[in-house]
Write a structure and sequence with these properties.
Number of domains: 2
Shape: globular
Structural class: alpha/beta
Number of helices: 16
Mean pLDDT: 82
CATH topology of the largest domain: Rossmann fold
Largest sheet: 9 strands, mixed
Length: 401
């Protein structure tokens, strides 16, 4: 009976908290999703409503599969729109995409950062003046409120030319060093740097844009920029079906579980966390009160750890830096394979980017560590300074202060 009183008390407190949180005004969510269901500024719900008006489709579907899966396994016959902050197509994805375009289909890829596989294949480069920090939401809001604007001149296929005014945040990326006769520039910033290009391949066209934010709710609803998204979508044939590929921004499979729905509301999410935490504390106190006294048993000594420390000291004293480095590298590679499911036989550009994305470690740290590992593996002898630098970078990677 006493326990029931505690339970009722906690339920009452949680109910009051949930009601209070749901009544509070919510701060604007500036996270970038490009997701077709999101009503937040950088979602694409409004864009999908716009697609219904442009194309002969009741609904423009979204897919959460890779290009290779869609084109080689599912063998789709649709035109494709892909919007992402960083578009990480591997060689198989891009080869399938080019073959799809060659058959006469239209594809539009919009991202702030084209990975080297696309750039190297089509002989162009992209540059990003200021990356959108999706974690510093106050900075995003401040940048959108700034006076700094950029005019974008768009040469439409019908010969008409239109000008749009965007905040500099949306025009931070641009193309340069274009060395491909099959590429045509179609839109430029006011400084003349292109932000939209067309690559003609076989019977179809591949459009590339460095302005993915133009497809978000914020800019589609804004009076000065709303027509820009319509102009980009008009590049697709209206009578053909269009598919929105969200894999490269959202991920492999969109979860639709009841738990996800509950956790999407901040008030309910915190209520669930508090409830679980309270139950855990309650169980701990209850178990402490009822269980018998447990004899203190000294923990088993970790002989393996002692052995590793002794071995490391031995190699260090013998100045055998290369041998010690090799063993540290083998352990690191094994961790990368098991924890992040990445192959370590080829430490190329795509591997570094994937490792930085999956681990959450800063891109600069990952690149420096991998490049140092490659250099150490190539050299027969390494200096103590290189060994210490590798140890420092590995500690940063492991999150050890």
């Amino acid at each position: 009976m006493k326990d029931k009183k505690y339970l009722l008390f906690f339920i009452a407190i949680l109910t009051i908290y949930v009601v209070y949180e749901m009544q509070k005004p919510k701060p604007e969510d500036w996270s970038v999703t490009f997701h077709y269901r999101d009503r937040i500024p950088f979602g694409s719900l409004v864009t999908h409503d716009l697609m219904k008006d442009i194309f002969d489709q009741e609904v423009v579907p979204s897919s959460f599969k890779t290009m290779y899966e869609l084109l080689e396994e599912d063998e789709i016959d649709d035109n494709i729109l892909a919007i992402a902050s960083d578009l990480m197509l591997n060689e198989n994805d891009f080869a399938s995409l080019l073959a799809h375009v060659e058959k006469g289909h239209t594809v539009l890829l919009a991202t702030q950062d084209f990975i080297s596989a696309i750039e190297d294949s089509l002989n162009f480069k992209t540059e990003l003046e200021k990356r959108l920090n999706r974690f510093d939401l106050s900075e995003v809001e401040n940048q959108l409120a700034e006076e700094a604007k950029n005019q974008v001149r768009f040469a439409l296929p019908n010969g008409e030319e239109r000008t749009f005014i965007f905040p500099t945040l949306a025009t931070a990326g641009f193309f340069h060093s274009i060395e491909n006769d099959s590429i045509t520039e179609m839109a430029w910033r006011e400084d003349g740097k292109p932000v939209l290009i067309k690559y003609h391949n076989g019977l179809g066209d591949l459009y590339l844009s460095t302005m993915p934010l133009a497809f978000t709710n914020y800019f589609v609803l804004h009076e000065e920029t709303s027509a820009f998204a319509s102009a980009l979508l008009s590049l697709f044939p209206k009578e053909e079906h269009l598919l929105h590929v969200e894999y490269y921004q959202v991920g492999k499979i969109e979860s639709t579980s009841e738990i996800r729905a509950l956790l999407s509301y901040p008030a309910l999410r915190w209520a669930i966390f508090i409830l679980l935490g309270t139950l855990l504390i309650f169980l701990l106190f209850e178990s402490k009160r009822k269980q018998r006294i447990i004899a203190v048993i000294p923990p088993v000594k970790n002989a393996t750890l002692d052995f590793v420390q002794t071995l490391g000291q031995l190699y260090h004293q013998q100045k055998n830096h290369k041998n010690l480095a090799q063993k540290r590298i083998l352990f690191w590679k094994d961790l990368v394979r098991s924890r992040y499911m990445l192959r370590t036989d080829k430490l190329d550009e795509l591997f570094k980017l994937e490792l930085a994305r999956k681990s959450g470690v800063e891109k600069m740290t990952v690149f420096a560590l991998v490049e140092l590992i490659e250099r150490i593996e190539k050299n027969d002898i390494i200096e103590e300074g290189e060994l210490l630098m590798m140890e420092k970078l590995m500690n940063e990677f492991y999150g050890i202060a």
